User: What shape does this take?
Amino acid sequence: MRICVGLMLKAFKKGHGEAMTAVLTGRDFVVFSDDWGRHPFSCQHIMQHFLPQNRILWVNTIGMRTPGFNFYDFQRALGKVKSWTKKAQIVTFPDGLHVISPVMMPFNHIPAVRRFNRQSVISCVSKAMKDLGMKAPVLLATVPNAADYVGHLGESSIIYYCVDDFTVWPGMNLPEMVRDMEERLVAEADLVVAVSKELCKSRRCGRGQTRLLTHGVDIEHFLTASHIQPRPISLADIKGLIIGFYGLIDNHLDLGIVQGLVDRHSDWTVVLIGTKRISLGQLEGRSNFRWLPAVPYADLPKYASAFDVAIIPYVLNQHTHTANPLKFKEYLATGKPVVTTPMAEVLPYAGQAHLAQAPEDFADAVEASLSETVRVEDRLSCLAGETWKDKAAMLSAWIEEVSSAGFISRKKLL
Assistant: This one.
């Protein structure tokens, strides 16, 4: 039966009231974060709702770990070099958004390199601000290395948007340096917003408050997955049920759980979609397992529509204890059954998803989810007030509080 997305959204909004969507206007922002457009991430989701009524200078930065000799790091390095040259691909950005990529070098733990990076970034950002006529902007950072630049850009206030515990991120080989950067950034911040309760507890703002800002979701975008529609070509030959996952394929994944699903039912096909940073070993030789490269954010609902069950088989460790998996609410918005390991940030949604940890229990939970009869509307009910527009409005209100408190330009304090 085909579900009318428009009618479902109308009913959802009617049942849960109008979303909180107003954001401040006429302000300038300097944002230090992941590369704009590289992959869907929370800061981009939120800040796009500040456009075009505000101006944003987006500063693409480099990673904080020492790169290794592997294909993934080589690709990232090549992309960075291209972004520094005039031969880089021209990209059209939304009105009000300006994106720059200062020349930066890895190996930031080397004092001379760190001094070069600091000067390069400050010089590049200062020039861009002058060209745009920006004065006393709000500085918002999601990356700890922004600690090297705060206080040098005449910012009116500093917002640290803590999206992860980078010190325990898989592959992080400079945890002490990152911890020191983050501690200095938290101490200087006028506001800290964190995506999980655990991060809120450990990142206490030095000059103001620390607030919880969990991830949002574009309900309208992902609800299209509830349509009955043809499978994408790369999945069209699969005859049976699809147990699906999309996201970065790295050490977060519990491959024991994935192996257990593959072994449980030969008529299930486990599909992992995403950039692969670990070996999948013998899984890729199994007829009922499939890996696909990452697909664009715009296409995620089309692939999710092919899932019979959406899964998050993450290991439970120090990192996932503080994490807020972005895909969890996206999965809920598709209307598909969801099975996940019991990470702290998904526990409040235990009534809308199946939770399991051991491989055998996880496979049991997938079986149970296949037989449940839950309406899509009921799955959506827990997402009231959880859109990215709602999150942008919350952040906007907090920034306005900081501004009205009378914080002056940091440049005057130096």
Q: What stands out?
A: Residues 67-74, 86-90, 407-414 have pLDDT under 50 and may be disordered. The CA atoms of residues 233 and 303 lie 10 Å apart. The longest strand covers residues 28-33.
